[in-house]
Structures are given as structure tokens and as C-alpha cells.
Write a structure and sequence with these properties.
The complex is a heterotrimer of chains A (about 140), B (about 200) and C (about 450).
Chain A: H1 7-35, H2 47-58, E1 66-67, E2 70-71, H3 81-95, H4 115-128
Antiparallel strand pairs in A: 1-2
Helix pairs in contact in A: 2-4, 3-4
Chain B: H1 21-49, H2 51-59, H3 63-89, H4 94-125, H5 134-165, H6 175-200
Helix pairs in contact in B: 1-5, 1-6, 3-4, 3-6, 4-5, 5-6
Chain C: H1 9-35, H2 46-77, H3 84-107, H4 110-116, H5 134-157, H6 162-178, H7 188-223, H8 227-248, H9 262-271, H10 274-289, H11 298-321, H12 325-331, H13 335-364, H14 372-409, H15 416-422, H16 424-447
Helix pairs in contact in C: 1-2, 1-16, 2-3, 2-5, 2-13, 3-5, 5-6, 6-7, 7-8, 7-10, 7-13, 8-9, 8-10, 10-11, 11-13, 11-14, 13-14, 14-15, 14-16
The chains are: A mainly alpha (about 140), B mainly alpha (about 200), C mainly alpha (about 450).
């Protein structure tokens, strides 16, 4: 091919290419949203689980922890924490955090959660642990 | 792809224009080929890990349709190449003849879309989805991605036809036509790899 | 400065730098908390320091983008800004909102902040980078829309160039995708899926358009290369960006509950995402090599070239290292992610903003370029910040590799906290690198106050 690749050709390729891939992305998003119910265990999202998500968000747990690998890297992955410590273990850990922290160690705040909030956050984390994440994380340590 | 100038048979190649246009076109086409190439590699890798699944699923593909589509695309490319050659040679009826060839190419492209579309209709009716199996994922992604390129190519061919009829490509100013033709040839080339890889090889 | 209304950019740039300093201070606090775990606990727990650090980053980058837009759009459009007054009003609104938000994070527990600011009405708080209270989020939308209105009206009444059009497209995209911050479904998978519409489609999507436009503008001014050439390259780069980045979103859909075909699609397309950054680097060096003038602002030229290189390394190369699904399976949510994130953000968005400020501030202050002494100090700050960032990234990468080995690959995987103790050395080295980074930033600040005769274009 001879001649010059002009600016207007580049512009046309930009329009064509962007629209093309945007439509593809849209199509794949539709397919994904359609396919999600088989993987996200949404039928198990009880009001308690929903409350638990609110506890998760209003205490900004993601500011220290990861959930399904996303978040902060200061504290452990919590997507599989119920499998790791059990429901009672999780509740016990949260309630036992010293308000002044542990000298020299990374410290978790004492949130003074109510019994209901503890049940909720545990139910939430337990639910997240059932989502089909293509076998991630590699092991129980997260 | 020859860089010789259209109007003369001189041996000297033109110096690259200061705007380095060709590099940009190559970046695009290379990026396209790279994307498809990586997909092909991924397909080969996935197939090597599960030959039984892939062979069985491949048997469910309609080779006749695939063959027809191959012939349609190759003919289409030939017609486009013919149109470019006609315009380069020039002459009083060059535009008319080139436009005719381009119309033929467009008809072939439409044929491909119809044939592939009916193949997809049959697959979806039988319940095939992206998530059905690794093969279905690759099959739908690879052929679907290519299909989108054909649809885009159809739009490109339509624009080329319009411009040719309007007499835009003459007096050596064939860069737009040649670029559009290069894109279409790339789409054809990808199919020529895809068809044997997905439909035939086992 | 060709148009009087370009002057509104100055407060935006000043605020940007000020918030940048705040961001780094909190970064150093976090870095220290990594190794002295209860540093400032319980007054400033890690997550609070983190939300201040990340939110300050985003807000200062936005101030930078807005300042850049107010500077370059009048010049590109060859007309005064539609409403300089509106720009100043929005400046104070945005600054106040930002400062109040940060004070809110620091002053009260997050759950209290949520109650006080109406989170119960519409629950949008508590997600990474989107920790802002509802009023702040709404304020951001209002400020963004008013800003876009101002800039768009300016372009519409003047000359429309590729640079201003691409910038507008990027900025409008930024605003539109931010709306997804208000969509927070109970379903965790849907939540995460659409959260990435804000984050990925920002930094690996429309923000790259903004970056490209800003860099193209500065390169035209500094090198004098023909606009046709630069604008054509800009189209090429943004095409490559969207073509790879849209489906590249899939590299965030590997392990969050979405279908497994994303492992293939996301891997293939995100593997190609370094290409636009590579093109950007080649473009920047090419233009500078083919320059038709010797612009006296050497510092801005250095920042422009550095942006290409560091964004390619940080976003492109480090991104590539962990983007393929089989690799990402082990690196997901590790210090590798942090390493990539820091160098990518610095190389692409911090540096392009500093490039723009480096170019525009002298002009806003009445000269083509700062004095030789000032530029030398600025260039020192470039090297200090850039090299220390490389070291931060290298140390975090080392920490990440060791973390992944001990926690996810070794035959006897160890718990998270046990592993963190074992990589502590790398965190200390990261922190020291961070101190050097701050030194570089302070040198940068100082360069604004170094006087002397402004450098002039040499007659060549």
C-alpha cells in the first residue's frame, strides 16, 4: 500500500474500532449478567446477609482486608474466612479485638458490634464463601 | 503488499512521507493480527489439554457452511484486489468497473453473513452458549470476533464503493481504497487460518 | 498565556500540588503501619489512613485534569473560557468538599460518618476508592457536570481541534462512568462487576484519553512538530487504548464469580494493553527528536518523556506481568498488585499532571520557562521521585513474590500475618524509598520559589 495514512483515516479507525469493541463489551456483559445466577448463589442472599453487607461497608472492612482478592493488603482475605475459622471463630475474633490495639502489631479496631450485627457480618462472609470463584483462592490461607 | 506508486512503473520506490503514515497503519493491522494470533494460540493450548472434547464438538460443526464461507470470502477478496488494480491502471471506465467489482465483493460479504448467521441460529437453538463448554467459548469467541470484523468490513466496503462511484480514487490518490482493501484482506486471511483450525483439524 | 481566562487554571494546579503533599504524608503513615502495626492506632487506623491517601490521590489528579482543561481548552479553541467565574466557584466548592470529606474520615468513626451523612438513604459508602459520603459523591457529580458544561461551551463557541475533542470525550466519559458509583447492589458479584466500570474504565479507559490529549498539547507547544502529525498519533493511541482496554476489563473478572470465559478474553485483550503505552513512548521520543524549536522549558520536556517511559513500565510492563489468568490466580490481591498500582498511577497520571503543570505554571506566572536554577531543582525532583518510585515498586514486587510463594504455592502454605512478618524487610525498604520520594516532592515544591532570570529560547 502506498501513500499516506492521514489523520482522518486514523479518526475513522478510532470511531469504528471504539464502537465495535464497545458493542462487543456490551454483548459480553449481557451474557455475563444472564449467566450469573448459576454462580453467585443469589438465592441465598437473605435479609441477614444484606444487613451483613451493610456492616461490611459501614465499617470499611475493605480498607484493610481483601474480599475475593479485591481491597487492601494489610489484613487477610476474608472471602474464605468462615471456611478457615468457622462462624464462631470469626465472631470471636471480631469481638476480642482490643480497643487500644496490640503493641507493635497490625491492629483491628474494636467495632462494638451488636449481636445482630455480628450474626449479619458472619452470614455475609459465609455467603461470599459460597460464590463460584473458579477455585480461587488457591488455598485456605487466602 | 507492494509500495510501488500506482501511476508509473518506475523502479524507484517513493521516499516515506514525512508523516510516517504507513507505520500507523501497520500498527493497526499488526495489532489486529496479534489479537487473533494470541486467540489462536490460546485455542491450540486449550485444545491440546482436552482433545476429546474438542474433537467431539468439532463434529457438530457444519463443514459445508464453512466451505461455502471460505469460497465467499476468497472470492470477495479477489474482487476487491481486482477493483484496486483497475483503479490503479486508470482509464475512462475504471471507476465503473471497480465499482462493479466492489459490489460483487459486498454481495459475497453479505452471503458470508447470511450463512454464518444461520449457523449461529442453529447453534443457539440447540442451546449453545458461551459458558456451555471450553470449546463453545472458543468457537463463539473466535468466529464471533471474526464475524464482527466482517460486519465492519462490510461497512468499509460500502464506503469504498460509494467513493469509487463518486470518482474519488483516481490520479494516484488511491490510499483510502488500498487501506480499506488491506483491512478486508486481513479479515480474509484470519478466516483462512480460523476455518481449518476450528472446523477441520483433528 | 494567550487568553486571560487561562489564569483560572492556576488555583487548580496549586490545590493539586497541595493535596499531593497530603497524599504522600498519609502514604508514609501507611507504610510505617505496615511494619509498626499499631502506629497511630486507634486514632488513625490503617483503613482511615488508606482512604485519605487514595481519595487525596484521586481528587488531586482531578484538580490537575481540570486545571489542564482550563488551560489548554481556551488556547486550543482560540477563545476565552465560557465562564471564568464559574470555574473559580467550582474550585472552592470542590476544594471544600474534598477537605470536609477528609476531615470527616479522620474526625469520626466511619460508621458514624455514614449515619451522619445519609448513607441509609442510598448506600454508596464503604467500597474501595468510593468511600466518600453521599453528599460528597453528589457534589462531585454537580462539580463535574458544571465543569464539563463550561469547557464544552468553550469548545463549541471556538475552534474544534482533535486535542480538545479527545480531552472532552475523556472527561465526559470520566463523569459518566462515575455514575456507577451510585449503583451498589446487594449481590457481591454484580457489585464488583460494575465497580470496575468506575475504576478500570477510568484508569485503563477514558483517563488514557485525557492523558493522551494533555501530552499531545504539551508536545505541540514544546517541540513545534506539525499538529497534523501529533493529532494523527493521538488518534492511533486512543484507538489502541479502547480496543485493548474495553475487553481488557475482563482481567478483573477472573475470580469474582463471573463466567470463566473472561479468563481467556480478559487475558488476551489485557495482554495487549501495554501497546498504547508503548506507542505513547515512541510518540513522545519521536516528537522530541523531530522538534523544530529549542523550547526553554527543559523540565517540562523531561516530564513528558518520563511520562511515556514510566507509564509504559508501570502500567504496561508491570500490568502485563500479572494480567494473564494462570499467573493472576496466584498473584491476585497480593503485594504484586500494590507494586503495579503505584508505578502505574505515578507513571501515567501523576506524571502527566506534573508535565502539564511544569509547562503551564511558568506561563501562568508570566514567563516562557523558569530560571535555569529552578529547572535544575525541578529536574532533581523528577529523578528523586521517579527513581524512588521504581524502588518502591521493586521492593513491593519482591515482597509480593515471596508472599505468594509462602502463602499460596509452597507445600505448607503459611497464614497471611505470618507471611507478612517474613517480608517486613521489604516494607522497611519501601518506606525509606517513600521518604526519598517525599524529599523529591519537597524539592519540587521548592523549585516554585527559586527565582532568577527566566530561561529563554536559544537562537539556533
Amino acid at each position: 500500500m502506498s501513500g499516506v495514512f492521514t489523520k482522518s483515516m486514523a479518526r475513522n479507525v478510532f470511531y469504528g474500532g471504539s464502537v465495535f469493541f464497545f458493542l462487543l463489551f456490551l454483548g459480553l456483559t449481557f451474557d455475563t449478567v444472564r449467566a450469573l445466577p448459576k454462580r453467585d448463589m443469589r438465592h441465598n442472599i437473605t435479609p441477614l446477609v444484606a444487613e451483613g453487607k451493610k456492616v461490611w461497608e459501614t465499617r470499611n472492612c475493605i480498607g484493610c482486608h481483601t474480599l475475593l482478592g479485591e481491597g487492601a493488603y494489610f489484613a487477610p482475605e476474608l472471602g474464605n474466612v468462615v471456611a478457615r475459622y468457622g462462624e464462631e471463630g470469626v465472631k470471636a475474633f471480631i469481638t476480642s479485638r482490643p480497643a487500644e490495639g496490640i503493641p507493635g502489631r497490625r491492629s483491628m479496631p474494636q467495632f462494638n458490634l451488636t449481636e445482630r450485627e455480628l450474626e449479619a457480618i458472619t452470614a455475609f462472609l459465609k455467603h461470599v464463601g459460597t460464590i463460584d470463584t473458579a477455585k480461587w483462592p488457591p488455598n485456605i490461607q487466602g | 503488499m507492494s509500495r510501488s506508486h500506482s501511476s508509473s512503473s518506475a523502479a524507484a520506490l517513493p521516499l516515506p512521507a514525512a508523516l510516517q503514515g504507513d507505520i500507523a497503519v501497520w500498527i493497526f493491522l499488526l495489532a489486529e493480527l496479534l489479537a487473533f494470533g494470541v486467540f489462536f494460540l490460546a485455542y491450540a493450548f486449550a485444545r491440546a489439554r482436552n482433545p476429546a472434547l474438542f474433537d467431539a464438538a468439532q463434529a457438530g460443526l457444519d463443514r459445508q457452511s464453512g466451505l461455502i464461507n471460505t469460497l465467499l470470502l476468497v472470492s470477495s477478496s479477489a474482487l476487491v484486489a481486482h477493483a484496486v488494480a483497475v483503479v490503479r491502471r486508470g482509464g475512462s471506465d475504471a471507476a465503473r468497473r471497480a465499482a462493479g467489482a466492489l459490489l460483487g465483493a459486498i454481495a459475497c460479504a453479505l452471503g458470508f453473513i447470511v450463512v454464518k448467521g444461520s449457523e449461529y441460529a442453529a447453534h443457539f437453538a440447540a442451546g449453545m452458549e458461551l459458558s456451555s463448554s471450553t470449546f463453545s467459548m472458543f468457537y463463539l469467541c473466535l468466529t464471533g470476533f471474526h464475524f464482527f470484523h466482517v460486519v465492519l468490513g462490510l461497512a468499509v466496503l460500502a464506503v469504498l464503493w460509494r467513493q469509487t462511484v463518486a470518482g474519488v480514487y483516481r490520479l494516484g490518490d488511491v490510499n483510502g481504497l488500498e487501506s480499506g482493501a488491506a483491512y478486508w484482506h486481513m479479515v480474509d486471511l484470519v478466516w483462512l487460518v480460523l476455518f481449518p483450525l476450528v472446523y477441520l483439524m483433528h | 498565556m494567550q487568553y486571560a481566562s487561562q489564569a483560572v487554571a492556576k488555583p487548580y494546579f496549586v490545590a493539586a500540588i497541595g493535596l499531593f503533599v497530603g497524599q504522600i504524608i498519609f502514604g508514609l503513615i501507611m507504610g510505617l503501619q505496615y511494619v509498626i502495626g499499631d502506629f497511630l492506632f486507634p486514632a488513625i487506623p490503617f483503613n482511615v489512613a488508606r482512604m485519605v491517601h487514595t481519595n487525596l490521590l484521586i481528587v488531586w489528579l482531578l484538580f490537575g485534569f481540570m486545571g489542564a482543561a482550563y488551560y489548554l481548552v481556551p488556547e486550543e479553541s482560540e477563545t476565552e473560557l465560557w465562564s471564568p467565574k464559574l470555574a473559580i466557584v467550582l474550585f472552592w466548592v470542590f476544594l471544600a468538599a474534598g477537605v470536609l470529606t477528609v476531615i470527616g474520615y479522620l474526625a469520626v468513626p466511619y460508621a458514624t460518618l455514614a449515619k451522619l451523612t445519609g448513607n441509609d438513604l442510598l448506600e454508596t459508602m464503604g467500597r474501595e476508592f468510593l468511600e466518600q459520603p453521599l453528599p460528597t459523591k453528589l457534589g462531585i457529580v454537580v462539580v463535574a457536570l458544571a465543569f464539563l458544561f463550561n469547557i464544552t461551551m468553550t469548545v463549541l463557541k471556538g475552534r474544534k481541534t482533535v486535542i480538545s475533542s479527545v480531552l472532552l470525550l475523556g472527561l465526559w466519559g470520566l463523569a459518566i462512568f462515575f455514575l456507577f458509583a451510585f449503583y451498589n447492589p446487594v449481590n457481591v458479584v454484580l457489585d464488583k462487576m460494575f465497580w470496575w466500570y468506575v475504576v478500570h474504565l477510568w484508569v485503563e479507559g477514558v483517563w488514557e484519553l485525557i492523558l493522551g490529549a494533555m501530552l499531545a498539547f504539551v508536545l505541540i507547544k514544546i517541540t513545534g512538530v506539525d499538529r497534523e502529525v501529533i493529532e494523527k498519533w493521538l488518534y492511533v493511541i486512543i484507538t489502541l487504548t479502547l480496543v485493548t482496554g474495553l475487553l481488557g476489563t475482563g482481567h478483573h473478572y477472573f475470580w469474582i464469580g463471573t463466567p470463566e470465559y473472561w479468563q481467556w478474553i480478559g487475558s488476551v485483550f489485557s495482554a495487549l494493553e501495554p501497546i498504547p503505552f508503548f506507542a505513547l513512548t515512541v510518540f513522545a521520543f519521536n516528537m522530541v527528536n523531530r522538534r523544530r524549536r529549542e523550547h526553554p522549558n527543559k523540565a517540562a520536556t523531561l516530564w513528558a518523556l518520563g511520562t511515556g517511559v514510566m507509564s509504559f513500565l508501570g502500567a504496561g510492563v508491570w500490568g502485563f506481568l500479572h494480567t494473564l489468568a494462570p499467573v493472576n490466580y496466584y498473584t491476585h490481591g497480593s503485594q504484586i498488585t500494590a507494586a503495579h498500582g503505584h508505578m502505574a498511577f505515578y507513571g501515567a497520571y501523576v506524571m502527566v499532571n506534573l508535565t502539564m503543570i511544569s509547562y503551564a505554571m511558568p506561563l501562568l506566572r508570566g514567563r516562557q520557562a523558569n530560571s535555569e536554577k529552578s529547572q535544575v531543582l525541578e529536574m532533581w525532583s523528577f529523578w528523586l521521585m521517579t527513581v524512588s518510585m521504581v524502588f518502591i515498586t521493586l521492593f513491593l514486587t519482591a515482597a509480593g513474590i515471596l508472599q505468594i510463594w509462602l502463602q499460596r504455592i509452597a507445600s505448607d502454605p503459611q497464614p497471611f500475618m505470618v507471611v507478612q512478618d517474613q517480608v517486613a524487610l521489604f516494607y522497611w525498604m519501601r518506606e525509606w524509598s517513600g521518604v526519598i520520594f517525599l524529599a523529591g516532592l519537597l524539592a519540587y515544591l521548592a523549585s516554585f520559589f527559586v527565582g532568577g532570570k527566566p530561561a529563554e529560547a536559544r537562537a539556533s
